[in-house]
């Protein structure tokens, strides 16, 4: 099971959702011993899911002028206790400066965030919901805690995560991995630690590689998936309904156990069920959340359309490995020039995906699928890669010698050491003096350097700067 924290500024409707999830009986949770008054905790029930929910709503009674500070501390505590944060804004108010502060806290804490635009019943919340995209925390769920709207979207967002956490629980019960990530570095070269830290709970070998094939309608997603499955398994009848079993298909792809998330099939079934509009909002997001590797399938004749760019960007922000596949290559003439143009467009339009592999395929003839398979497996491997602290620090020394960080106002920025804190995707912490003064361009220099030095192509890289003077 997992823990969900509901966070957000006062009055956005956190308690209402909390009460809806926990039910009336447990709303008396305050009276139970051991429950602090400022963070309420209860057992939530949503469809088939059972989980723990934390509500930071006690804040709303706070009236003293240190509200901001308390709010921040409480939110941080809730975030630390939770596996997932549901960050709520008021869709009727839109995004306020206080919301921005919360968003920053969540980003800095590297929380797994589900964004919810609440009070969005009827048409009233439309613009606030759209505004919420600007927080850069992914696609917001439109909901009304009061009216119980949006609960299905919340459920379908939580489902794949719940699955993953169940797998984690099974894992930790077996192996009990270390939970602490040691950031203390004594100066001598540390032994390369092969043990995965706690957050890397999704095992690589035991579970099939999870792939989502995304792209605009008619890019050839169904054709490709059918090719991989080697049979017409996708086009099940409308009566099959949109069940999770039907949209995530286990198979073996050239010997690799995989599970493919089928957005194309979802849409086809949805059309029959006349739910197209509803699904199109969230199916891309669901697919990306489900996936370890996202294959962005482009149509060679209309590559890098708005929709493709959006989903590719989403995959990056969600920290997924990404492979770009250009389909219908059988139709392409003047291939060399075409490929060149595609690569240039890719670099220009998706700089955030720098280094991600681009392969040409024909889903219809099957050509290039071996290279696609190879690229997917490689991207997955890179996404899971761990670089030793010793290697990283040798590298960092070389980088800062080749290009010393700037000296703002004569104060020298000194980068002390770095370590990888997480995989899937790889995340690194650099201990430095004056972390706020490090320019974005210097961070890019380090990220790009990491990419080429350690062959980290096809995965997002997270770099965090921490103060250590
Ligand atoms: P989806 O909406 O992304 O699932 O797209 P479909 O798989 O339904 O394919 C849309 C159309 O493109 C169909 O007419 C396919 O036959 C065609 N198509 C798919 N892949 C290829 C390909 O590699 N080459 C060519 N020439 N046509 C393709």
Keywords, please?
469 residues, GTPase Der, 6-stranded mixed beta sheet, 19% strand, Rossmann fold, GMP Synthetase, Chain A, domain 3, Small_GTP-bd, 14 helices, binds guanosine-5'-diphosphate, alpha/beta, single chain
Give your account of this protein's structure.
There is one protein chain. The protein has 469 residues and is an alpha/beta fold. The chain has three domains: 160 residues, 3-Layer(aba) Sandwich (Rossmann fold); 175 residues, P-loop containing nucleotide triphosphate hydrolases (Rossmann fold, 3-Layer(aba) Sandwich), CATH 3.40.50; 79 residues, GMP Synthetase, Chain A, domain 3. The protein is built from 14 helices and 15 strands. The strands form three sheets. It has a six-stranded mixed β-sheet, with helices on both faces. A six-stranded mixed β-sheet has the order 8-9-7-10-11-12, with helices on both faces. Helix 8 runs antiparallel to helix 9. It is globular, with a radius of gyration of 23 Å. The relative contact order is 0.08. About 15% of the residues have low confidence. Bound molecules: guanosine-5'-diphosphate. The site of guanosine-5'-diphosphate (GDP) has 16 residues, from helix 6. Associates with the 50S ribosomal subunit. It comes from Rubellimicrobium rubrum. Belongs to the TRAFAC class TrmE-Era-EngA-EngB-Septin-like GTPase superfamily. EngA (Der) GTPase family. GO terms for molecular function: GTP binding.
């Amino acid at each position: 099971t997992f823990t969900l924290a509901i966070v957000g500024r006062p009055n956005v409707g956190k308690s209402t959702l909390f009460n809806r999830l926990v039910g009336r009986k447990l709303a008396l949770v305050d009276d139970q011993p051991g429950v602090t008054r400022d963070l309420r905790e209860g057992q939530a029930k949503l469809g088939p899911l059972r989980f723990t929910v934390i509500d930071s709503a006690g804040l709303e009674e706070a009236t003293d002028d240190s509200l901001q500070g308390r709010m921040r501390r409480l939110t941080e505590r809730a975030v630390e206790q939770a596996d997932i944060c549901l960050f709520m804004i008021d869709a009727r108010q839109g995004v306020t400066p206080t919301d921005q502060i919360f968003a920053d806290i969540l980003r800095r804490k590297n929380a797994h965030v589900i964004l919810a635009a609440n009070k969005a019943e009827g048409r009233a919340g439309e613009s606030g919901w759209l505004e919420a995209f600007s927080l850069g925390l992914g696609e917001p769920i439109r909901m009304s805690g009061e009216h119980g709207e949006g609960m299905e979207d919340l459920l379908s967002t939580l489902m794949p995560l719940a699955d993953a956490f169940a797998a984690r629980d099974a894992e930790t019960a077996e192996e009990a991995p270390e939970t602490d990530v040691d950031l203390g570095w004594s100066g001598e070269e540390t032994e390369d630690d092969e043990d995965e830290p706690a957050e890397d709970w999704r095992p690589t070998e035991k579970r099939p590689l999870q792939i989502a094939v995304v792209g605009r309608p008619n890019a050839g997603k169904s054709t490709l998936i059918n090719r991989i499955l080697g049979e017409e398994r996708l086009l099940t009848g409308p009566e099959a309904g949109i069940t999770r079993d039907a949209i995530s298909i286990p198979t073996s792809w050239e010997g690799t156990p995989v599970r493919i998330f089928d957005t194309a099939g979802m849409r086809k079934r949805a059309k029959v069920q006349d739910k197209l509009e509803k699904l199109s909002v969230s199916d891309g997001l669901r697919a990306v959340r489900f996936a370890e590797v996202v294959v962005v399938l482009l149509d060679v004749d209309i590559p890098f359309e708005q929709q493709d760019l959006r989903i590719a960007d989403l995959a990056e922000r969600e920290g997924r490995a990404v492979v770009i596949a250009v389909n219908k290559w059988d139709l392409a003439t003047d291939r060399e020039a075409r490929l060149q143009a595609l690569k240039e467009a890719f670099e220009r339009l998706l700089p955030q995906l720098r280094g991600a592999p681009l392969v040409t395929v024909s889903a219809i003839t099957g050509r290039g699928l071996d290279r696609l398979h190879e690229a997917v497996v490689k991207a997955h491997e890179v996404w899971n890669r761990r670089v030793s602290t010793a290697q990283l620090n040798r590298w960092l020394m070389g980088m800062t010698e080749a290009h010393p960080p700037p000296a703002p106002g004569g104060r020298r920025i000194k980068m002390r050491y770095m370590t990888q804190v997480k995989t899937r995707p790889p995340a690194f912490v650099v201990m430095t003096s004056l972390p706020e003064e490090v320019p974005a361009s210097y961070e890019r220099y380090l990220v790009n350097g990491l990419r080429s030095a350690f062959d980290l192509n096809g995965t997002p890289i997270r770099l965090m700067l921490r103060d250590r003077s």
